[in-house]
Amino acid sequence: MTFPTLARRAFCALAFAAPVLAFAFPNGPVEWVVPYAAGGGSDVVARVIASEMTKTLGQPIIINNKPGAGTNIGAAYAAKAKADGQVVLTADTATLSTNQFLYTKPGYNAEQDFAPVGLIARFPMILVVNPQVPAKNLQEFLAWARGQSSPAAYASPGAGSPHHLATELFADGAKLNLLHAPYKGAAPAVQDVIGGQVPFMFVDTAAGGSHIRAGKLRAIGVASLKRVQGFDSIPTLNEQGMAGFEAYAWQGMVAPAKTPPAVIDTLNKDLNRAIGTEAVKARFQALGLEAIPGSPADMAAYAKTEREKWGKLIKAKAISLD
């Protein structure tokens, strides 16, 4: 065999191998951008899943908290990252379904700048009141709210938050005139409902679950079609007369657009495996979260449905954060 023949064969072998080498993943630590401050529900979820995913990816996953502007800061950062899977983002209700309606210039395009990896979990919402409010079920709550001399006030972690939008959706369905009291985060909002400064709010299970169990907040109803595991004694608003009412805060993982499909597939498989581990299941149960593993296509479809639902409400209510 002549040298030119060997050279040609070697070149062909390298040519066929090149795409495989180009898609080698991961080739170093993976950066997981969480667009919220450390210690919150989204941060906790990312860290427990990252711990499990690291075991199969073979590289550490480093959490990078980039809070601010309703997830826009972290999302814009991740959208501009190299599309090789080495940077992923926790993308939630705000990032993919509401911010494009709440902000004129969020800094990224929710439908074009990201490749879905997979859904992670939903945070069920619960309508809660201060124990001094004379209501123990939906009908009693509606009678109380309608009987106030001025619009009943409700707390939320902030304007445009899933909790705020859930309450506006609830107000529309129940024909209530309410007054919004936005806070800078779930913790201060919950504390003021406990303290009686504001009579009620929609709270997610991660932020309010322990207070419900301790009797500091009284649960009126869950904003889902089925009762929530761990809070089985709380009836849904749906079964109390608000047919079809549901509202969640949810989150999943995305990568920058044009990330190779092989990389997305690897991330998706490891993400779903991590969600199914006992460690993650136990943590989710403690937080009252509903795991929602699935494919990238499942996530894309879910985000689209949520975008249509909340976009319609935001436009009708003329809610803006600019």
From TrEMBL:
Signal peptide, first to last residue: 1-24
Pfam families given in the database record: TctC (PF03401)
Keywords, ordered alphabetically: Signal
The organism's place on the tree of life at top rank: Bacteria
Similarity-based family: Belongs to the UPF0065 (bug) family.
Entries under PANTHER family matching the protein: BLR1237 PROTEIN (PTHR42928:SF5), TRICARBOXYLATE-BINDING PROTEIN (PTHR42928)
Record's protein name: Tripartite tricarboxylate transporter substrate binding protein
Organism whose genome encodes this protein: Massilia litorea
Organism lineage: Bacteria, Pseudomonadati, Pseudomonadota, Betaproteobacteria, Burkholderiales
